[in-house]
Amino acid sequence: MKKQILFILILLFSILNAQEKEVKVAFLSDVHFQDLYGNFSDNDFKGIINPKTGKATILRTMESQLHSTRIFNENYFAFIAALDDIVSKNIKIVAMPGDFSDDGQAYNLRGLHKILEEYKRKYNMKFYLTTGNHDPVGPFRKDAGKDDFLGENGKPFGIYSKEMIGEKPSRIYTKDIAESGYLEILNELKDFGFYPQKNDLFWSTPFNKNLISSYSFDDALVAADYTKRMYEVEKGFSVPDLSYVVEPIEDVWLLAIDGNTYIPKNLNENSSNPSNYKGASIGYNNVLTNKKHLIEWVKNITAEAKKRSKTLIAFTHYPMIDYNDGASSEIEKLLGDKKWQLERVPQEEVAKIFSEAGIKIHFAGHMHINDTGSKKTENDFLVNIQVPSLAAYIPAYKILTIKSADKMEIETQILDDVPRFDELFPLYEKEFLALQKDSNKLNWNKDILKTKSYRELMLFHLKELVRLRMIPNDWPNDFIEKGQNLNGEDLLLLGYKGINRKIIQSKNYKKWTFDDLILDLYKFQSADELAKRDIPKERLEQYKVLEELFAENQSKDQFILQLKMLFKILSHLSNGEPSNHFEIDFKEKRIKNI
């Protein structure tokens, strides 16, 4: 009996000890924070009054949200809900892989700082940020503004940083709407990873290798200075790089890679001209050509981590591995190489180089999608995890549990219910009425204001985005015109053409349309396996039948060939690697569903 009790106690102790050693990190990407209740330092405007709350609110129009790949307003509430959820799970480390702001305006950065500082103070949380292409939009501060803020009369008006910008006659001016550069972002948010903190065990940049061998906080503070974090992106053009590595908890290193590469448009122009730099949305493809010092730095850091038995977790704004689950070539054949954001797909060389440099696990954002990709070679195994955006479908964040250096668990936390998500709906009602009076304006679907949860709102946003932007911009007109009046049964009969097979019962296929098919394709692109929650099970089974039929179909008819590619894309996107809740075994080089 005593032996049994002793065995149970030892077992319980070992379980508790293992749990204590497990480290959890939450990843919140593409928050695109805009401060609904912020203020400007040089203008008294505080927004328009919301009749539901009586509060002044600075918000963008619903019309603009439904033409954008992210929303601008309700993500404010989603961000707070996500942080509260992280608090409830007792997770203390939060990494944010870029686009933490929406174009880095000063008033939004101040609002973000305030929220992060509150959670840091109240709950002892640590935040580690890295930059995305929306923070900053360019390396240096640039005058800017937006035409689509919602006015008191329900119509859009402009907020600009100076005159001669923007189109709206109804406007106000504030310097706080200008797009901040690296310097302004560093000054405002330096306490959240960009500068060393006293409780960090280690912190360094690509420009100070001495810190690795003999670390001191004071030396790290000197190395963090803006002027010491510059590199030549082209000869004569010096721009900042805010990459860093930090040890927030013993034996875990977070590698925050600044993947922004701002290349000058004109090499004869002044290097300090903020308008002379291209955007950074291409990501790692430009790192390979114009930011090579990062590759050498990553090699050094991974070598040091291995030597010192540190578990290294990398995160950047940009993906390292193709996130289309092998469908990119079919997408290009069907839509063309300039559509579906194919220019953002990383070259295969990116995964090869960073895998060989020693990175095993990498978290990214940018694409607003849920996905897992891997690159396996004889010697290396790299896993790229795409963190969904809180401002798009499917709204979620990721939790990494480090069980050991070789075993890690990933969970995806969907934001179904967000308190106050419908707080701004009365203001959109006013906007809709104003749009109705203008017969030249395309009205958005007012039913979006009937949604009952944040997740439902984001799904409706995707539906409107596909209708208003994706189909008109990405898809061949003739293909959409031929398909738009078809239902599932029509597609089934087209699939059977020329195939000697017994025709199955087709009446149940009438329940859905060609438009449903296109929307479901985008659901899978955005949410991966999590899209299955929002597609009827019967329809998913019917899609498999259609995928097989069109794969067999040898017709040379242009429309049939296009449908064949569409179903092949659907098959790829709906059968990717596990992306919801899974375990990575780096020793066995495999990803397993949990």
Write the layout of secondary structure elements.
Elements: H1 2-21, E1 23-27, E2 48-49, E3 56-57, H2 62-65, H3 75-88, E4 93-97, H4 106-123, E5 126-130, E6 145-150, E7 156-160, E8 171-173, H5 182-194, E9 202-204, H6 210-213, H7 217-223, E10 230-234, E11 237-240, E12 244-249, E13 252-256, H8 284-290, H9 293-307, E14 311-315, H10 328-335, H11 348-356, E15 361-364, E16 371-376, E17 381-386, E18 396-402, E19 407-414, H12 425-437, H13 454-474, H14 477-483, H15 488-496, H16 514-527, H17 537-552, H18 558-573, E20 581-585, E21 590-593
Query: Major sheet, described briefly?
Result: 7 strands, mixed
Mean pLDDT: 94
What fraction of residues sit in β-strands? Answer: 15-25%
The count of strands amounts to: 21
Described by the principal axes of the CA atoms, the overall outline is: globular
**Which secondary-structure class do the elements indicate?**
alpha/beta
Q: What does the radius of gyration come to?
A: 25 Å
Helical stretch tally: 18
First-to-last CA distance = 36 Å
- Amount of helix: 25-40%
Strand line-up in the sheet with most strands:
5-4-1-18-19-20-21
Unreliable residue runs:
9-19
Describe this structure in words.
With 594 residues, the protein is an alpha/beta fold. It has a seven-stranded mixed β-sheet with strand order 5-4-1-18-19-20-21. A hairpin with a 4-residue loop joins strand 18 and strand 19 (407-414). The protein is globular, with a radius of gyration of 25 Å. The chain has 18 helices and 21 strands. The two termini are 36 Å apart. The longest helix has 21 residues, at 454-474. The chain has helices spanning 2-21, 62-65, 75-88, 106-123, 182-194, 210-213, 217-223, 284-290, 293-307, 328-335, 348-356, 425-437, 454-474, 477-483, 488-496, 514-527, 537-552, 558-573, and strands at residues 23-27, 48-49, 56-57, 93-97, 126-130, 145-150, 156-160, 171-173, 202-204, 230-234, 237-240, 244-249, 252-256, 311-315, 361-364, 371-376, 381-386, 396-402, 407-414, 581-585, 590-593.
